Recover the amino acids of this structure.
């Protein structure tokens, strides 16, 4: 039963916003038990294909994925040009971008401290961003920097950096010359699920980028949490 409904969703028989038949209707139409119908809907819910709305029923979710090109973040940009990879991706699709920004000085956890190669007693400055598309929370981006490098710069100040934090790092003498990207899938934490208003069963992609300067010192660790149903991450590599 779940396979039949899944195919109907992917083929467009049921479009985003459509309400699926109830358990009783599925039972009558397909001659199945009520329990089989219920389990099929639960399976689609756990796969993130539908939501359960009180007094409405099982609603097909919007599956419009935002196309992101992570490599474009580090492409050269003319002086004065504003380039923020995610914001650019949103606006390219004619959608509205906004974000909430919070700055903190933190004693980084073991993973971040290790990636930034922080010594005992050293701190990081983190720019926490909750990013929105068309007014809806879309992803989380936390960027960590060694405090000793950025504490007197715009990176440590509240508000958006119109020319980009990467440009500020360059002005501080720490232009990133290489990056290492890690991507993994997992279920969201409770905090992530609440911030991103995730439906039950939605998994996330965690994208971690570590940027290194010319001396091979890590100067930035960016951790992005992307709901898997809302993002398509694409890399384009020249092989010549």
């Amino acid at each position: 039963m779940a396979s039949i409904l899944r195919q109907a969703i992917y083929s467009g028989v049921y479009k985003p916003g459509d309400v699926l038949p109830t358990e009783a209707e599925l039972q009558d139409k397909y001659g199945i038990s009520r329990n089989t119908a219920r389990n099929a809907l639960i399976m689609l819910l756990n796969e993130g294909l539908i939501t359960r709305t009180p007094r409405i029923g099982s609603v097909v979710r919007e599956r419009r994925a935002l196309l992101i090109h992570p490599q474009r973040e580090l492409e050269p940009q003319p002086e004065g040009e504003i380039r923020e990879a995610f914001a650019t991706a949103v606006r390219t699709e004619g959608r509205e971008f906004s974000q909430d920004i919070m700055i903190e000085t933190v004693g980084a956890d073991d993973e971040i401290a290790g990636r930034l190669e922080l010594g005992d007693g050293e701190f990081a400055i983190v720019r926490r961003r909750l990013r929105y598309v068309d007014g809806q929370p879309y992803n989380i981006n936390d960027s960590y920097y060694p405090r000793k490098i950025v504490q007197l710069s715009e990176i440590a100040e509240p508000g958006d950096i119109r020319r980009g934090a990467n440009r500020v790092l360059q002005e501080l003498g720490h232009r990133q010359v290489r990056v290492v990207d890690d991507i993994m899938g997992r279920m969201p934490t409770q905090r992530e699920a609440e911030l991103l208003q995730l439906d039950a069963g939605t998994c996330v992609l965690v994208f971690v980028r570590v940027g290194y300067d010319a001396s091979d010192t890590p100067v930035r660790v960016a951790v992005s949490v992307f709901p898997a149903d809302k993002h398509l991450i694409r890399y384009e590599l020249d092989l010549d």
Q: What stands out?
A: The mean pLDDT is 90. The helical segments are 2-10, 23-30, 34-46, 85-92, 110-116, 147-150, 165-171, 190-196.
